């Protein structure tokens, strides 16, 4: 096996740190978590730097050893955003929702936290279907932040995912009102108009967005869905080709195509 070959190497036997680090990273790239962990374990001295610990934690987590990853992460600097992001992700993977929310509060309560960090955390939670937790993050924001267009877009998506289309449309409209040039906001408004039956308006809005940014994936995907639901087959074929040229791995589009 690859692991057996590595341990027979004279560089491994001699404990060459450059060899072991390069081998660990190569094993990670190849999805060989066992070899990566073995190399990182050899590298991690008592005074190992935080960035190296984080790399090892990634290997443990990728291999499914969430407890081992968290035990190792204790040795890293908790003031580091990367460390706290790892805590959040691994605790979410492990299903420790309470601990995850505690880590989120630490992450967002730090002096270095900015609006972008809130958005990243909300995206993470929404993508995982953790809607109640995403709502809790929304409640942590101050009044100015809550009305920021990017936050309103996430608020709209959250309302949409939880079945409140009326509130989702309202938030999307407010996001556009506050920033007419925000294409993500306009796409979300168009998405909600499509969901609420305003198909022609949604289609025209997609055309307008794509005239500004021909590769806007949100608008392309929405345009695909509108074309398919409206039986506009030639339009559907055209937009599917455009999506796949940008993202050949889009299985939903490939199946529709």
Task: Describe the protein's topology.
Layout: H1 2-8, H2 10-13, H3 17-29, H4 33-43, H5 50-62, H6 66-73, H7 81-94, H8 97-109, H9 115-127, H10 131-140, H11 143-146, H12 149-161, H13 165-178, H14 183-195, H15 199-212, H16 217-229, H17 233-246, H18 251-256
Helix pairs in contact: 3-4, 4-5, 5-6, 5-7, 6-7, 7-8, 9-10, 9-12, 10-12, 12-13, 12-14, 13-14, 14-15, 14-16, 15-16, 16-17
Question: Overview of this structure, please?
Answer:
Helix content is 77%, strand content 0%. The protein is an all-alpha fold. Helix 15 packs antiparallel against helix 16. The longest helix is centred in the middle third of the chain and has 14 residues. 34% of the residues are buried.
Summary?
The protein has helices at 2-8, 10-13, 17-29, 33-43, 50-62, 66-73, 81-94, 97-109, 115-127, 131-140, 143-146, 149-161, 165-178, 183-195, 199-212, 217-229, 233-246, 251-256.
Outline: globular
What can be said about the biggest beta sheet? none
User: Based on DSSP secondary structure assignment, what is the total number of beta strands?
Assistant: 0
**How many helices in DSSP terms?**
18
End-to-end separation in angstroms reads 40 Å
Binned, the helix content reads over 70%
Poorly predicted residue ranges: none
Report the average pLDDT across residues.
Answer: 90
Q: Note the beta-strand portion.
A: under 5%
Q: What Rg, in angstroms, do the CA atoms define?
A: 23 Å
- What is the ordering of alpha helices and beta strands? HHHHHHHHHHHHHHHHHH
> Which structural class should the secondary elements be placed in?
mainly alpha
